[in-house]
Predict the structure.
Amino acid sequence: MFQSTRRQFFSTVVAAGVTTSLAARTLRAANANEEVSLGFIGCGGRAEKLLSQFETIPGVNIAALCDVDANRLGSVKQRFPAAKSYQDMRQLIADKSIDAVVIATCNHWHCLAAIWAMEAGNHVYVEKPLSHTQWEGRQVVAAVRKYDRICQVGTQQRSDPMQAEIKKFLHDDKTLGEIQTARVNHYFIRRPIGKRDTPLPIDKTLAYDMWCGPAQKSPLFRDNLHYDWHWDWNTGSGDMGNWGVHVLDDVRNNLFQDSVALPKRVLAGGGRVAFDDAGQTPNLHFAYFDTGSIPVVIGLTNLPDQPGAKKSPEHLGPGSGYIAYCEGGRLEGQRKRAVAKDADGKVIKEFKGNSGDVLHQQNFIDAVRSHDRSILNAEVSVGNDSTGWCNLANVAFRASGSFDKDTANSIAVDEWQNVLSAMGEHLKSYGLGLDSDSIRLSPMLELDPATERFVGDHADVGNPFLKREYRKGFEVPELV
């Protein structure tokens, strides 16, 4: 391996804001019985859950913590008093005592933080969604190959043993016959995030420039900095990237067995309705994916069935999960469980799982110790593809115009029409319809799988959203 010091790396990134091509160092834990030292980048709610999971694994040492918010950092530091603490991730990455980092930041930081860490020799566990845009996800995959690192994406259900049982049931035993169509749901109630007349004050204990990182440094007009970044395109991916990635990953895994990396065509619509807030991402979102084989549709809503209510609207299948419609019945899958029903709706088999928690983290540690990425359950290329479906659904929404009934009805797939009908009925409770000004629909966007760019008649409206503009000093490097 090339010889280069961590101090040189740190000097480079702090001075220039970018990294140079440094080779990976040898893991200090050379076998399964030696300690692996982890550094956590991000100390928010998700990180705290991951900390609880990783600390249960024998031989794992929580060695360093990092968060731009000094208050969050201090709170987690109380749990791990022996861990080093940093407010700048570049200092943690440069710490030569760290073997691997866990990235649980805002979405817009995932890719650059992962690449910086791998350039410095670290292995990486990065939360979903892998990327904020599809282009930067490809750069992470390239970085893993270039620096020969282990990189696991946090779609933990991949490590649930139940998934192997489902795949055997659907594909080996073919108990329900051929899969014909797939429907994905995410019905989850959220509340407005507020709308300020003046910018949100940023606490002096928070390093806001570093918090923004690759994103534009813009004033915020919502009520809270943390978590609600999900609903701002500058930093988040909406619930399509927040939760949709989990369920679409299940579809890719269990129904397609990862044979379809990205859809050939995508069409999406929806809107941010009933919320008079500073959010930008849709709270009602629906999409159609043409895979070349099994058509997939998704319906997502953050609204209750009626204004002020506490339950989601009625829907087919699980509230957050998928339905595989087959020749002889259907399989309804969700986190921790699934059920298979025959054509008459009679239950013929039930599956019980465990979410993959701890098993997924153990899988990462095992791969780090053996330096064998082939054993990963959610290796970066897998996570990049699953994230890609969500990125494309978001791009289609952002490239949308007024809802066009003819375009919507041009898709002769029953489940697509069922989702549209359900969304239309849902909107009636809010005095709206699919033809309302607040509801949008994209044209059909065709993807070139080799370049992961749109081609054809509507390429010009979709392609501008495939890569973001990065702030100086926080550019994701082009590696492929």
